[in-house]
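Q: Hi! First time doing this. I have a protein sequence and I read that you can turn it into a structure. Is that right? Here it is:
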Amino acid sequence: MSEADRRLVDRFLEMLAAEAGASRNTLAAYRGDLEAAAAGLPSLGKATPEDLDTLAGQWMGLAPSTVSRRASALRRFYGFLVDEGDRPDDPGTTLPRARHQRPLPKVLYPEEVEALLISAEDRAGSGEPRSVRNLAILELLYGSGLRATELVTLPRSAVRPGQPFLILQGKGAKERLVPISTRASDAVDRWREHVPTSVPWLFPGGKSHLSRVRLYQLVRELAANAGIPPEKISPHVLRHAFATHLLAGGADLRVLQALLGHADIATTQIYTHVDSARLIELVNSRHPLADRDR
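A: Yes, that's right. Below is the predicted 3D structure, encoded as structure tokens:
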């Protein structure tokens, strides 16, 4: 496995540990499956659908359960790369899979996000630096739909007074404009007063910037403080909430695609299904006939 592929796998496993709470044994199993697949590919991270097609022949002597597990690991790995903007397409769709639909992203109701922000605002009112930082993080995640990696690597000067947007540069030097609400801008201004001018990062941590793992931990701590089950929330769930709530408010799908930085609108269209699922759940749980016996 190349060093570039190893770094991608490390980031993927870091996400599984932080967001999914994967155990050490689970992480080791994922690493083993990805390394085994990488041995039969020119490049794991840059594999094409044609490259993945060759794995079927290489896996012919393996048990069906092993093939299913490796294919599942690869699909989740490539889904992560697409979500993180490391590649615009998902070659994992060509891999064998059990006959079931990929689960829809977790979504928070607007009332839950409001409770999360109110709790964070109350704590930030004390002026304690950590609480001020946490409010700025929440405002950026939910108010702008940033990916976890995009947020933790923001430079100190990324948000400027009077500038209602960020310019983010992703893979392939592709840039996109990300709106910054007045609330988020004010929260960042308050936090930046606590960041030494010599530090290049907006959210420093250790010898560099805040880590993805620590970000996941912080978001879940904030959920617990607001009385929301921590397992319901992660940085990526807040990104999903940003998209779903905009769509429910009438945002155009193409605009949403640009805001999220999706190369393919098919990736953005999942939010139409998420919103439909939310509406069905709403009808089933709150309609006057929902509790009536058949």
